[in-house]
Design brief:
The protein is of the alpha/beta class. It has two domains: 5-30 and 269-387, Lyase, Ornithine Decarboxylase, Chain A, domain 1; 35-268, Alpha-Beta Barrel (TIM Barrel), CATH 3.20.20. The chain is built from ten helices and 20 strands. It has helices at 16-23, 34-47, 62-70, 81-90, 107-115, 125-135, 166-179, 197-213, 238-250, 265-268; strands at 12-13, 29-32, 51-55, 75-78, 95-98, 119-122, 142-147, 154-156, 182-187, 191-193, 219-221, 258-261, 272-282, 285-288, 311-315, 321-323, 328-334, 348-351, 359-362, 383-387. The radius of gyration is 22 Å and the shape is elongated. The two termini are 21 Å apart.
Length: 388
């Protein structure tokens, strides 16, 4: 299960400082921490009593996919045919689940016939009709009806675009069962959910839906939303989430119910750091070689409202990398493009001694960075090294 050739021989360093010292990168550099990928996967595989699906949209890069596979992840939450093809092309034995409620025409057919995908999500009559028509063999399908779960506690809500209320969902469950497919339920409490109780509330909504429908569901997918630790956002320990979910599931009284979850951020965020360089300092402004159109796209969203906690790093007269110390002050950080909107939305706190040519190291940059970067204005962060 190998990544493309260019990633099989990445340079390896004992630490982030050694990587900076050796490479002196003038372009953004992603630093991969294999042990952090392994630790994140182990937490879910050991702690969650069901199938763990990696939400590929968080980071579809071959390096992330391969490290999670090596750590024991076998199921993948894929939200497009492109993601399915990427996963199966790299990991032929992976089990893909097409968990997008709305799919482009023909994608369900291709996923079903060419890649053996049998799990699909719907939240409307029309999408169910399309799915049944394209696959043509409902007895081989598990169809998950997606519920609205607007419960608070998450930094990014995930129910305004997809999902239906229990009344509508119960009708869909009946139609799924009548068609001969296995009826299932799913929901998403929101990204970076800091409240374990939100999962218990969502499971109660699922229970209400089951009661309304009179249908015995075959599986419950509790979605993603599991958080990672960012500066200023220390979430509850994962065992609180797993215990809360287990207790809520016990109240369903369905002891043989198959259960799934879809962690994305929680599996990859800590596994990658990012090294940027100060192209120019102008007073309280830093012009970096990466920005909003590159690795920092997610920082546009409300909720990520803490000051960034990066490390400033300089090379001394002997070329040795060292962390800058001293009193910190807020800097406005701009990306490299010519767009005035290419500016991080909140200050970056760094020592006042930071200067042109120094480096800024951001940790926990594995989620929604690589997946949302663009080549706008000719800039595309794509340097890689392994740490450890």
């Amino acid at each position: 299960m190998n990544a493309p050739a260019r990633f099989d021989s990445l340079p390896r360093f004992a630490s982030s400082l050694k990587a900076i010292e050796s490479l002196k990168p003038s372009e953004p550099l992603y630093l991969v921490h294999p042990e952090k990928f392994a630790a994140a996967a182990k937490q879910f595989l050991d702690g969650f009593d069901g199938d763990v699906l990696y939400a590929v949209k968080a980071n579809p890069h071959p390096i992330a996919l391969r490290h999670l596979w090596d750590a024991g992840i076998r199921h993948f939450d894929t939200a497009s045919l492109g993601e399915i093809e990427s996963v199966k092309g790299l990991l032929p034995d992976a089990i893909c689940h097409f968990m997008a409620p709305v799919r482009l025409a023909g994608q369900a057919k291709c996923a079903f016939e060419l890649h053996g995908v049998t799990d699909f999500v719907v939240d409307s009559e029309s999408e169910l009709d399309k799915l049944l028509a394209e696959t043509g063999d409902p007895k081989k399908l598990r169809v998950f009806v997606r519920l609205v779960a607007s419960l608070g506690g998450a930094l990014l809500e995930m129910s305004s675009k997809y999902g239906c209320r229990p009344e509508e969902a119960s009708k869909l469950l009946k139609r799924v069962a009548q068609a001969g497919a296995l009826p299932c339920l799913t929901f998403h409490v929101g990204s970076q959910c800091l409240s374990p109780f939100s999962y218990a509330q969502a499971i109660e909504i699922a229970q209400r839906t089951i009661t309304l429908s009179g249908v015995e569901i075959a599986a419950l997918d509790i979605g993603g939303g599991f958080p990672t630790a960012y500066a200023g956002q220390e979430p509850p320990p994962y065992h609180w989430y797993f215990d809360m979910i287990k207790e809520a599931l016990a109240n369903l009284g369905k002891h043989d119910l198959k259960v799934m979850c879809e962690p994305g951020r929680a599996l990859v965020a800590q596994g990658i750091s990012l090294v940027t360089q100060v192209v120019m300092r102008r007073g309280d402004r830093l012009y970096l070689n990466d920005g909003i159109y590159g690795s920092f796209d997610e920082q546009r969203f409300a909720g990520f409202d803490e000051d960034y906690p990066p490390s400033g790093i300089t090379l001394d007269a002997k070329g040795k990398a060292k962390i800058l110390t001293g009193e910190k002050r807020p800097f406005r950080a701009y990306g490299p493009t010519c767009d005035s909107a290419d500016v991080l939305p909140r200050p970056v706190m760094l020592p006042d001694s930071i200067a042109t040519g120094d480096f800024v190291l951001f940790d926990a940059m594995g989620a929604y960075t690589v997946s949302s970067r663009s080549a706008f204005n000719g800039y595309y962060p794509d340097g890689w090294a392994i740490i450890g």
